[in-house]
Amino acid sequence: MSFEHEATSFGGHVQTFLIIWLGQFASLLGSEMTNFAITIWAWEVTGRATPLSLIMVVTQIPRLLISPFAGIWVDRFNRKYLMLLGDTIAGLSTVVLLALFLTDHLQIWHLYVSGAVNGLFGYIQGLAHSASMSLIVAEQHYARASAFESLQLSGSYVIAPAIAGAVYAVTGLSGILLIDLVTFGVAIASLTTVTIPQPTASPKTTDPIWQQLTFGIQYLWSRPSLKVLLSFFLISNFINSACFTLLPAMVLARLGSNSTILGTLFSFFGIGGLLGGLTLSVWGGPKRRIHGVLIFSAIWKVGLIVLALAQPVTTQMGTALVSGFCSPFPGSCAQAIWRSQVEPEVQGRVFATRFLLTQLATPLGAAISGPLADHVFEPAMQSGKPLAQLFGNTFGVGAGAGMALQLTLFASCGLVVALGGYGIRRLRHIENNDGRIILQKTIK
Fold this sequence. Notes:
Elements lengths: L2 H6 L5 H33 L3 H27 L2 H24 L5 H29 L5 H30 L1 H20 L16 H5 L1 H7 L2 H31 L4 H25 L5 H21 L3 H14 L1 H14 L5 H12 L3 H19 L5 H10 L5 H20 L4 H4 L10 H5 L1
């Protein structure tokens, strides 16, 4: 089935959806190329996992701080302009990094500042985009729309590492940053050509600012099932952050900083994600969307464990392909649940609160992952050390072995959490509840 045919089945503003999708895909492609190149550059400069984890920390913290206000802005202001603002600031940040690199002044702390700025405005842009989709796409196709959004990320994972690896070998970081600037230009140009629908019902503007900031919490507090879903993702995001922050460093350490194999591995993740997203876009996901959240989250964690244990490159590539295929399902299915139960006119505030509450543990997971690897697990898995004597036959010894053990421990906890979700009745039956019937009571 063709992309155009499937998108047409969405109903609503099909042309707007396609233009935004293509523009944001270009932007994501450039951003993923830059993220890939920066990871390699930071590893080459420091040879440690901690700087890589700190980049994620400083990217996430501004998002958490701004999220309550961002929800109000997205519900009140023109969402198209907010999306343009996010892409523009990200482009300017790339210009600054490129200038610093070309003048031989780029340092690790500059990446922290850039990550903080991009995290802040990128979150506003992403929230405006997510809330807009509920008015662009018909409700029965929310899961498919989420799948197409996952295709953006998956497609960029396929193309970005391959291009970035080749370009980085020839031009270094500068060539990647130049390509990133071009993709931002494409994204901005695409947004200027479309009209993005606004909610027909505007939120009250006479309420005290504190009441506006706490609206999302009040809304969710009256929804016990959604509170359980929030708790599930709070724990899962802590584990995911600790795992995914560590993965590139572990691979680079084990492969002797071979960026080509790292790029190929992440391309296989992307190919799998692309196939998974295409499957979701055609299929629409399981009828009970919570199965897509729990089952595929569990498979993801099994894939991480295999990656930590596997030594042959072919096994790692195959595992990345399967894990990548599963990756769009949890997020797309969860997003479909949220979009079906929260009214479009308040999704900005509610989604911002959801982000704040579910992502609180993400900086913590990233912050502890790098130092644990550098100061605990890696030294303990050197030849003759205690952990190496216990686990050396399983994970090997030397560079990367400690991170492999650490990744396995965190991923195993994630597997228990995902499968344990079926033991929680409110989570298992979350789709039996209609969230929209209490909106008027909540607003009052």
